[in-house]
Each structure stands twice: as structure tokens, then as C-alpha cells.
Amino acid sequence: MTDTPLSPGSTIGILGGGQLGRMLAMAAAELGLNCHIYCDEENAPAYEVAAYHTVGAYDDEAALRAFAQSVDVATLEFENVPAAAMAMVSKDAPVFPPPFAVEVSQDRLAEKRFAQELGIGVAPYREVKSLEELEAAVETLGRPGLLKTRRLGYDGKGQVKITDETDLAEAHELVGGVDALYERFIDFRCEVSVVAVRGQDGEMRFYDPSENRHENQILAETRIPARVPDEIVSNATDIARRIVEALDYRGVLCVELFYGGERAPAPLIVNEIAPRVHNSGHWTLDACAVSQFENHIRAVVGWPLGPCTRHANAVMKNLIGDDVKQWLELAREGNAGLHLYGKRHIRPGRKMGHITWLSAMNGEC
Ligand code: AMP
Fold it and tell me: Which atom of ligand 1 is nearest to the CA of 219?
């Protein structure tokens, strides 16, 4: 395929079955498209809203190939899909986003180098392959800082904060002694992210940058518009544009940035590139005519992109762990969209749903 837009009735394969896959499948269904979810869990949130699903390991070649042969195009909903699994699927189906984009985002070192090559600011860092290298990095960059594993980290997993009190040998052990980075702690004013989409024909569109607040390194709240100067809004969008173009990207991508304070090395620093729909773009479901999920689906099946303009200001709050027990009160909230992910078990730190409050664009949220 790739040139002819897929018709309604076609099937999109999605690697991963979490809430992002669930919301992608619902957006696809709105356009008359089917989804086939591939995930290694018995009960994944996306299964119940998709036409088909396969429970399979990400190294099960036979299952992956059968999955790929059953779909017209494939995509992913989490960036840690093993490269070999993507290669396997791409034997039988086109895969978007391009594997290179996924590889870059899977490795914090490759991600930082990629941003630096584009002239985009990153937190000062050093590669750490041993305790001696960690000691040298802390000596050079100072404390506080963060020791982050190169691979398989998300929502603060695989990271340790290094303060004046931290014993470096213990910290090195805590991240499992694997290849890592030591990164200077950035005293930022706020975190900002840009959700971008690039279509089959190379057209790019951008949702307004959002302001994000994390608690325990997990996204707690996203606010639109971000309370940053206009210049920062356009610079953040321009950074996302350069990244999406350089990756020859197709689909939705999110760039997470720190908006620096006086002590930050640059006004905007890229923290992470996520080659997928993103939690900080959930507000687009309620505040935009076409959400990040629908635009990702449109890009993947080769349809024209939808508008990224918003019709409201929004505050999105994640419902984490026990927060979801308030579902009835939240369902009574006026001018808010409630989204629950159908997860059967509540666990601390687990994303169970989200709610987005809307307000007039010329009023206060
Ligand atoms: P990450 O897993 O890299 O996305 O980090 C999760 C969260 O930890 C970020 O959203 C920040 O809130 C915080 N964080 C990560 N790196 C840094 C840093 N260099 N300086 C300050 N905070 C950070």
C-alpha cells in the first residue's frame, strides 16, 4: 500500500493493548476501520473495543507473522516494542511510524544525540557504563542529577535521583548496573509538550503545546494553553517540526520539553521523544474536532489529516490508582469528558482513566 488511502473496512494492526491502543481503536472505529490488537497480556484494555486481538509474546515469530498477514497496515502504541518484532511485522505489512524513529526513542543516548545533531538543547549528560564512569560524571556535572537507564525507562522507571546524600554505588546498583546516562537535574519552570502529526504526503500539523505537571514522575495534569510566553509556544512547535521532519515520520509523535528557569542551560530542553500518541494529548479528545488518536489513524491509513485546532481551553487530570473510585462524582461534573480505561485491577501508580474539564477560550479554566 502506502500510496492509496486504505478504504473503510480495512484493518489496522496495533502492537500493544493498553489505554492508548484502546483509544486508537475507538478512533479507528469512528472512521469505519477495524483494529487488530497484538499484546502479550491476557486481558488488555484495548481488546474489548477492537474487532480482533491476538495474545502473543513480542518474540513469537509465528504469532507476529500471522498478525501481520491479517492486517493492511500496522502501528504501535508503546515505544518499547522490540526492534525484532517490528522487523518481523514489516515483512508482511507496512509499519508506521518508521522503525528508525522507534529505535531512536528506545535509547536515551541515541535520542539525545539525535536532538543535539539537530541543534536542539538537551540536559547536560554523560554516558555511564560503570560505577567509575558514574563517579566521573557526577564529578563533572555536579549534583543533583538523575541516573537513567538507556533503555526501557518510562514514567520515572529505571531512574534514580542523585542528591548530596546519595551513595553512588547504591544508585548504580538500583538501576541494575546496566548502560545508563547521568543527567543534570534541570530546575525548570514547567514541562511543556507538543503533539505533532505528519501525514502520508508529508503534511505536518501541530496541537497547541500543553503544560504538564508530574507527580512521582507520572503525568498528573495537562493544561491548555500552556502558561508560557508566545515565543516559547512557537519555539516548542518548531522543535517538534524539526524532529518530525528529520525522522521522515508518519503518524503522531510527542515531544516532551522542559521550559527552563534562570539556571537552565537553554530556554527549551528536549527530555523525551515519544513515537506515538501521548498522555499529554488526551485533552484533544474533548477540546478538538479531530483528536490525536484519529489523526494518528488518518496518517497511518493515508487519509488527509484532520484539523488540530481546539475549540476550548482544557485541563486534563489523570485518574491514577484509587482516583478512579470517584467515577460517579466525576461523571456528575459539568463540562467535562470522563474516560475510563476498563482496567479490572486498581494498582498504585496505574493509569485507570482521565477527565478533561473544558472552558471557554477567552475565559479562565
Ligand atoms: P522521563 O522518564 O525522562 O520522562 O522523566 C520523568 C519525569 O522526571 C519528567 O517528566 C520530569 O518531571 C522528571 N525529570 C526527568 N529528567 C529530569 C531532569 N534532567 N531534570 C529535572 N527533572 C527531570
Answer: 10
Q: Is the CB of 153 under 6 A from ligand 1?
A: yes
Question: At which of 184, 211, 231 does a domain end?
Answer: 184
Asked, for residue 84, whether it belongs to a domain, the answer is yes
Query: Taking Cα atoms as reference points, which of 236, 154, 225 lies closest to residue 196?
Result: 236
Torsion of CA 106, 235, 314, 47, to 10 degrees: -20
In the listed set 95, 115, 136, which residue is the last one of a domain according to the structure? 95
Q: Which DSSP string do the residues of 150-164 spell out, in sequence order?
A: SSS--TTTTEEEE-T
Q: How far is the CA of 217 from the centre of ligand 1 (A)?
A: 7
Atom of ligand 1 nearest to the CA of 156: 2
Structural domain tally of the chain? 3
- Rounded mean pLDDT, 235-255: 98
For residue range 192-235, what is the model confidence (pLDDT) as tens digits?
Answer: 999 999 999 999 999 999 999 999 889 999 999 999 999 999 99
Atom of ligand 1 nearest to the CA of 153: 2
DSSP letters for 242-283: HHHHHTT--EEEEEEEEEE-TTSSSSEEEEEEESS--GGGTT
